[in-house]
Structures are given as C-alpha cells and as structure tokens.
Amino acid sequence: MGIDVKAVEALGGEVLDWRFKAVPASAHGMTVDEAGDARLPLDDFGTPLLTLDASALEHNVRAMARWTRDAGLLLAPHGKTTMAPALWRRQLDAGAWAITVANLPQLRVARAFGVRRVLYASTLLDPAGLAWLSGELDGDPDFEFLSWVDSVRSVELMDEALRAARGQRQVDVCVELGGPDGRTGVRDDGDAREVAAAVRAARTLRLAGIGGYEGALAHDASERSRASVGAYLRRLGNLHERLEYEVDEPVLTVGGSAYFDQVADELGGAGGRVVLRSGAYIVHDDGFYQGISPFARGTDGERLRSAMHAWGRVISRPEPGLALLDVGKRDVPFDEGLPAPQLVRGKGPLEGGRITALNDQHAFLRDTSAEVGDVVRLGLSHPCTALDKWTMIPVVDDAGADHPVVVDYIRTFF
C-alpha cells in the first residue's frame, strides 16, 4: 500500500460544521462517515455548491489504470488536481506507481498521509524544505522521493543545503528538459549533460532519470501542436538514452492529461521506467479536457466522464433575457472557459442559456428559461482550479438524477 490507510480513514471522523461552506446546517455535528451514511438529499444543500459524481470517479480511475497498464506505462497521478488523500488512495489502490506533487506544501500533505513514493515535478531549492526532506528520508527507509533540476546552479544549491542538513540518504533527481517558450527545464541538450554531470559529482544527490512536461508546449489538439509535442518527446527520449544514470532503472517521466497517447507512442519502448503524470483524468471536465483528451480524439480506451458539477440558484431576473445565479469566481473555475448551464434540478435539461460573465459571487445567465428559485447544474472546465475553492466536497450518487443523494464527502488540503 502506497499511503497510510489509517490516516485516510481517520478523515471520516472529522466533524462537519460551519467551516465547510458546502455542508448544510442539518449535517453540523455529524462526522463525515455519519453524514455519508445518512444519505442526505442534495435538495437539503444550499447554493453555491460543487459536487463530485461517485460513478464517474470510479469509472475514470478504472479507465486510466487499464489504459496505462495496457500501454506499458507507469502512472504517478498529479496530486495537485485534487489535493485529496482519499482520492489519492483510490488511484494508488488501482495501481498508481506514485503520487506527483508540485511544491513543498503539497509534499508535506503527501507525507502527512504517509505517501510512500512521491515524484516532485519541480526543483526544491528552499534550504529549510531540503533539511525537512532530508529528515523525512532518514526517518523512513521506505520513503522514495524523486525531484528535478535544470541548471548546474540548482544542483549546487541543493547539494549545499543537503550537506548542511547532514542527511544520510542521497536525494534522487531527474534532469528536466524544457522547450522553447515552455516553462522550466534545460533548453539545450549540451546543458542537460552538464547538469547531469554536476549531479553525479554531488555526493548528496543521485542521478535517477530525466523528466519534462510536453503540455507546456501546446494547448490544443491541432496537427501543429501534436507535431510540436511529438518532436519534444523524441528529443527527450534521445537524451534519456545518452545520459549515464546512477540507478538500475532510471525514470523517464512526462505527461499531462492532454497528450498521453503520444507519450505511449514515442516513449513506450524506452528503457527504465516510463512514468506518466496525468492528474486531471480522475475528475475530468465538460470543457478543456473534454475537448483535448486523447480518449475524445479516438484513442483506444473508455471515454472519461466529468465528475464535477457546480450548482447555482437563480436569485434574480432583473431584465429580459438575463438571470443571475448565486455562483461566481469564488466558487467555480473560469481560467479555461466559463461554466456551461446543463439542467435545472428536478425539471430536466435547461432550454437555452449560456453563461456570459462571472463576478465574485454571481454568474450572468442569458437567453434562458430558468426561473427565479430554480437550481441550475453547471458543467465546468479545468478541475485544477475548481476543487481548490472547496475544503469539503459532497459526492452524489448520480448528478443527472432529478434529486441526487449525497453518499460521501471528500476533504481537500490546498
């Protein structure tokens, strides 16, 4: 088991109260487990509200686990998407090799819940953070950690901080390869080899692989974007073969949730461990990922299903053709597209309607048949900026039912 099951199960004992904006007053004083067993109707919950769909979560975890296994890839889901240890546990139970994190606070959450193997998809340079990490490694021989570096200077800073911490275990690192106009990562292959040599010369570090992120180089599924991604992956694979590692099975890690089919095509036969870091798949969406997912483009595999929805109530119709919902930027994502109205709870599909703008607490719903008092279900885009707005998320049995029932609650730690 790759996570502390007792720590995850202990979340079921947390008492629900006013701290959790999704939780109705009727559930205050209950524990999470008690509220789940009570199967409260969603009609009892106020708005605004974000929910997850139980069957969609289960389907997505199963579908991605099967696909990566069939493709010969390992999966280290990016934990930043949900920051929910209960969902990490489901992914690990389904065969995930590790959990990925992006920064020190996320790493501390992972360790608080006993995640055994963590891929840190960034460069950790904070001296205090490195000293803490060194203590974690020395204190838990089963803890495996893998970080990134993209410059000789970052190697020097890590080595300096780790020597000061006087840790006994080396820290495994990957050389990160980037691309033009991308994010972090060495741009030149020659520089990458220099970084690798610096790692091998640092007694506190061990060269354990190579990594990168192809999603920073493209943002759609056009032929041009896919060609750019393919060229980057081939370059990464070629560099992987030329570096001299200090471990028996070096890691080659890439992959967001948009181009994992190309990762399998280009790197599936590479030596060592090829690790995919897709994270958004477990929640998926009705926007960006719905359009760009390889499963939506015809790649073999079960289509993913959006597991997240927002619910907002029509509180005003101040002029013809305009309705205002009590849901806004504080409640739903908007960086990858505005929410899309789907249905009115208890009445069925919404006739017409489009969200044209969001304020902090309001959504502008135009050309709609929704009436004051109606509760509208919204499809969302980009789970990474949806779940971070909610600390306790109700899980419904069926978000498409006339009157869904809440069967569980997911605690997040953003």
Automatic annotation (TrEMBL):
Q: Which domain of life is it from?
A: Bacteria
InterPro entries from the entry?
A: Ala_racemase_N, D-amino_acid_metab_enzyme, D-ser_dehydrat-like_dom, D-ser_dehydrat-like_sf, PLP-binding_barrel
Domain D-serine dehydratase-like stretches: 307-397
Protein name from the UniProt record: D-serine deaminase, pyridoxal phosphate-dependent
- Report whether Transmembrane shows up as a keyword of the record: no
User: Is Cell cycle given among the entry's keywords?
Assistant: no
Keywords of the record, alphabetical order, are:
Lyase
Organism from which the protein derives: Actinomadura meyerae
Which family does the entry's similarity section mention? Belongs to the DSD1 family.
Listed SUPFAM superfamilies = PLP-binding barrel
Recorded GO molecular functions are: lyase activity
